[in-house]
Every structure is written in structure tokens, then in C-alpha cells.
């Protein structure tokens, strides 16, 4: 039988549903790209509507495979091609282009498009293919037939024979779009047709949605359709707007909005052109709004087309949001008339549900649209059923809490417990916002007043970083809006966190009101009253001194009460009296068994800082920090590491101090610090910058205008002190004097303050001396007397060192000698080295070269990398002056701890700096682990380092030690 050629009418003729494309090219001929008709989104079911013709872009390889198949079938060779790609990538466009080219080339074509809504129509694909062939006036089963009228009664082999018969009349192209949604009968027929392809020239082309499950068909070609790149989208825009240069911002934005899906890009460009717009960035908001409208219209159409089973399943999936197993989801959906698998396939086909496990709704918009088909009462009833089902199925707390967050109060005790456990887990993982959301949801449940205060307390801690003012208000409500049913432990914890925030005025007022309302309140033993006393002491630094509300008795000798010990220690330290007793009481308060509130422990650690017991203070603050982190108390944790930074600065560990400063801001962002606490953070920042000789950074720290409410209190005085030091470093003695005096004016209410914590007299005396004003010596002697009263050797030595410059001649030298004597052996390592260097310079100025040489020899072997920049420069200067006096005056290393390392110690130091552990070093050098440990301790002492980190820095390539 001769091959029959089908002539396709031209555009506008009644006989083809497809626009005509160029004829298949001959070898070597140039043919323009096929043209695709893309229906408007939301209008795919109405093919008569206006369409946008868009050239295929970045599809050269795919088109080449399809054209090769068409040439093959024209030459009498059968084949099959599978077009695979994601939704909206243009699979249908490629199939349409192939069908058009095949028709123009004389190939008989049969085309059918599948959809999820028709996947249950028996042999629907076969019927549409028959109809397409009948429209072309081909003979089926020996005579003309219409639309496969009897196909439902015919067997699959007979149906395959009908198509083979058509192919015997001429080459046949069978194209099935979205074949994954074909009905079971049509799928069985397609599989059978694969085995009949060699009986006549036939090309079987199918497009399937890429889900990761479709492999290449054996013996056939697979075409993977990609999404458009940004360059491809730019070409598409240029083709649609000839003569206009596409705005790169427009193409980038459009690519982000559409994901490079041609099915979205084409109608957007068509509508933009129809409105007379240009492809510029200014139109992106309108494009985004249009895509949202299109998406909403598609959702409405798709959901309206769903059968009852699929709609019920969609609602269940939407309300569960992927948090429950699919078995529970189907249980929630209720009994379905059909099979669950068929309903799920339809939902995936419409793009309403994601393919794969776990089964999830496509997005939040789809979930809202699905649940929007129910009334408010219906949505609430479905959500409550979902939660009850999840609780009975014992789903994990995190998932159950997320479900509870979406429903109205259920009125069950397990709901509050679940939300609290899930919130605690979120907090531990660092998700404070998620914890706050769940705790806020728990507060909507009917709970007892005591339980409500606990929830409010947890919510306040979770909110402090993002909503500090709201957090403070919640803590105040816990303290003020309470009755006798709330335990004292909850009130104590709330007061502790409120005081740690730094708003001591509010804390004083609120704690006083709470104590007055509590029956059986005993001011002498109450930890709550002790917290109020701390707040009262800080308020006394301001211009308005509050009326005393707390009269906490002092601890008597032999008293072991930790509350009285903490308050008495702080009281003694603030008055600068009895340092030994204050130290012992602070140690008692910091014992683990004391179990004191965080703020009292911070106060005890501050006492140890004033007493120069820096190692104990650091250990106590580390314990407070760890406990605060476990409890989620960000403000307490930030205060602990900030105070620890001050301890490290006093010990000369600048690197550790900087790390603690960064940790304080990491625990509580600077924007969340209360105005009365913020000066303390900036003051420590300035002190660290001054120690590192970074004057510009120090000036920035003390320079900004503080927010209202930050101009009084202990923290404000500390900042004024550092501001004065910055002015002194800049050479502005008058501004420094004013800053120091302003710091001193705030100490009247707290009885002058501790001479170590706020040495404003020392700074003022230096400023007076440098400005040439009278009164410097008198003020210096007053500061020395106060340091003597406090009696801590390190504090006395540091005061003598700093005030030596106020005096001249022998009096200056005497103060320096006294500073060296008092500072030696204390934790103030940098102050001691500075005193030795200054005394060596003074001896050299007096001509006592031998004494100067002996003194500078005590520090000349120290590595400059481990010293502050100013001190290292001073040591080099004095050493240079001695060297210029002659070889006999060169600095000689002092014997003892500062001497050079032995050969064995040098080997151990090198291995430790390289990261070796003690056992590894012992094996390498054939020593005992205990001996390695002892040698390392001696090495640290000789090199004046505090650990392996500083040792590694010292032994790094290029350093003097290496």
C-alpha cells in the first residue's frame, strides 16, 4: 500500500488545532525555530482564547533529538522518545512543535494530552488519539470511524492493530503529553504499542513529569527539558521586545519570580507587551502581583475541579502540614469512596501536593486556599481533630506543638506541657523566637495563675533579645500581678532576671512592692530582699536617691547564711572596708551549695575582682555563665562574661578579654541592652581598646551619646572613668578632669565607691598634674589613703604606679619602688611589668646604670607579642638606652622564671605549640606524662603565657621564640 500524505490546512483553516510551523528542513537548509502556542495561565481549558506565540529558547539539543526521530520515521524506521522535565519547563511545547513539524513533513499524527482530572476515564487517551486520526480522514479498521466509538469494547491487541493499520498507510507519530496521568487502560495500551513499533513506521513520543522515578525507556531516546537560564530568559525578553535592550535587573528579577519556567515567563511578557510596558525593573512589582493573581486563579480552578475524595485528602494534608505520617493523614481525611492512591495522584498532578515522602502541601498559599473551602467552624473542627489524632498517636513533641500552634485552645493539660517541652527544646537549640511563639500559644490555654506566671517568665526570657521592652514588662507583671498562690521561687527568679537587665530603678520599685505584698516577709533572710538591696545601692548613684526600702542585716562572724554573706560582701566592697572579710564572704556566696540567684553571685564575683582574687572570680563567673546559658537567661550570661572580661583585662589577657566582650554581645545583642546597662558594655570595650593601644576604637566606644536613662548608675560612672582615660591618652587633660569629676559626683549616694572599681581620684589627680593645676598632689595622697584603707596589695601597688607621675624626684621613685614591691606576685602581671620598667627608666635617669640594668633584665626576655603595645615599646626604649651606654650596660636576663628555656623545655614547647597532647609529647621524647606536665607548667611561667594558645602564638614562624 502506498504511503498517504496528509496535507495540513494553513492558518485559519478549520481542520487543525495547531498553528502551522516550518516544514522539516532538508540537510543543510536553515529553518527558524518552531513556534509554540502557550495558553494563558488559568485559561488552559479554553483553547479558543487568545494565546501568545513564543519561540523556543535553549532547546536546540531537545529539538535535534525530536527531529532525528521524525526523519527516521519518514525513512521507515520506528522509534520512541520520552520528554522528561519539571512542571512548567515546556515539555508540552516541545511535543506541540514535534507534532506540527511532523504534520508539515507528511507524517500522520495522533496527539492526546492527559490530566489528573481525567486519569480515571477508561481508555480516554486512546479515544482522543482515535479522534485526532479520524479528523485527518484516515482509515481505521477498514473504514472511516469517528473518535474511537467502539474502543471501550475492543481488546488491547485489537486496538494496537488499528494503529498499526494506520501506520501502514503512512508514517505515524503518536504523541501523548503528561503520560504519567494516563488512565490504567491507556497505559497498558502504550506498553503494548512499544512491542508493535517494528511492524510499521511509527514514532511514539511521550512527555512525563520529572519526579525522579522515570528512567530512560529501553531502546528509545530520553530528552531532559531544563528550566531557562537567566541568559535564555534574556533572549526570550529580547525576542518579545525587539528594539529594546532588556534591563538586567528586570531579567534577574523575572528569573527569580518564575524560576525560569517558560510556562510562566511567556504569558507575563505577553501581558506586559499588550499593556505597552517595557522590560524594566520598575515593572517587577506589577509582574509579581500578576503572578500571585495567576497562582490564586489556578488554585481556585484546580481545587474546584477536584472530586470529593481528593478535596478531603487535600484538606487533611493542608492542616497536617507534613508533620504527621500519611496513614494518620488519611485517617483524618475520613473514609474515601475511591482509592487513596488515585486521589493523591490527582493532587500531585495538579501541583497541589509535593511528590515524594513525606506528603506535604505545595506551599502555604495552597494550604490557605484548601482550608478556605471550609467555614471557620469547619476549619477549627478539622484542626482539633488533627491535634487529638496526633496526641493519641504519640507523635513527637515538636510536631505536636506545631500543630497546637495552629489551632484554638484545646483546654487540655497535656497541651500546655507539650508546648513547654517543645519550647524548651527550641531554646536549647538557639531558636528563641520559636520558643517564644510556642510559649505565647501556651498562654492562650486555660491554666492556673501560678502556671501562667511560670509561662510568662519563660516567655520573657525567650523574648529578651528581640523584644527587650516587652520582656521587661512581662517580668514586672509576674512580680506585681500575683497573689499568694505563686511560689516565692518564681518571684525570686523573675526579680533576678529583671535586676540582671540593668534597670535597677524599676527593679527596686517592683521588688519593694512585691515584698510588701508577700505575707510573712522577713527582710533579714529573704533573697528577694537581698536583690532589692542590690538595686537600691545602684539607684543611690543617681541624682534622685530612693527612700531605703531594704535594711538587710550584715552577716555576723561565723554566719553561714549565703544571702547575708553576699549582701554583706558587696556592702563592704562598695564602702572600701575590710577586704579580707569581704573576700571570705564572697567565697561563701559563690559555693555551689549556696544556690543563690544569679545577681547575688555576680555581686560576689565583683567583690573578688575588687580584692584581686581574679582566678577565683573567673571560675565563679564561668559557673554563673554556664548556669545562665542552661536556664536561657541571656542577660545574666552577658553580664557574667562582661565582668569576666574585666578580670582578664586586669590579668593582662587581652585576647581572652576581647573574646569575652564578643561573647557578651553574642548572648545579648547591643540593641537589647537596657540604657542603664549599656554604658558598662561600652566602658569595658573602651578599656580593652586602651589596653591594646587602639585609641581610635576607644574613642568610638566612649563617644556616642547614650540613650535617655543611661546617665546615672554604676555603669555610667564606669563609662565616665574610661572617657577620662581616653581624654588623658589624647592629651586633653581638661576634658579628662571633667569626666573624672563627673564620675566622682555619682558616688555620693553609695559612699564614694570602691577605690579599685572606680578610682576617679587617681584619674583626676593625673589630669590636674598634666594640666599644671593646683591640688594634684593633695588629691593623689587622698587616693593613696583610700587604697591603703581597702588594703589589697595589688590595688595599693597599682594606685602607687599610676600616681607616681603626679610627683617628681625621689617621691616619684619611692612610689615606683613601692609599686614594684606590692605588685610582685599578684595577678596584676602587666601592672608589675610596667612598674619594673618605669623604675628602671627612673634609675637610668638618675645615672644608676647597674640598678637599671638589673631591673630591665627582669623583663627584657619577655616576648613582645604577649605584652601590650605600649609596655613592649617602653621596654625596648629603656633597653636601647642601656645598650647605648656601652656593652657592659646591656640588659642581662635575670635568673629564675624569666630565664631562657633549656634544650628539653624548648623541645616540649615546640611540640605543645604544634598541637601535640601531653601523652604524645611524652611518647615522642620518651618521658613520663607527669614530667611533661611539670615542664609545661615551668615553660608557661618562664615565658609568661597562660596556656597553649598563647604558646602557639609565641612559637609561630617569624616570632623571636621560634
From TrEMBL:
The portions of this protein that span the membrane are: none
Limits of the HTH luxR-type domain: 894-959
Q: Name one GO biological process term.
A: regulation of DNA-templated transcription
> What superkingdom heads the lineage?
Bacteria
InterPro entries noted in UniProt: AAA_16 (IPR041664), P-loop_NTPase (IPR027417), Sig_transdc_resp-reg_C-effctor (IPR016032), TPR-like_helical_dom_sf (IPR011990), Tscrpt_reg_LuxR_C (IPR000792), WH-like_DNA-bd_sf (IPR036388)
Q: Which SMART domains match?
A: HTH_LUXR
GO MF annotation, one? DNA binding
Pfam families to which the protein is assigned, alphabetical: AAA_16 (PF13191), GerE (PF00196)
What protein name is recorded for this chain? HTH luxR-type domain-containing protein
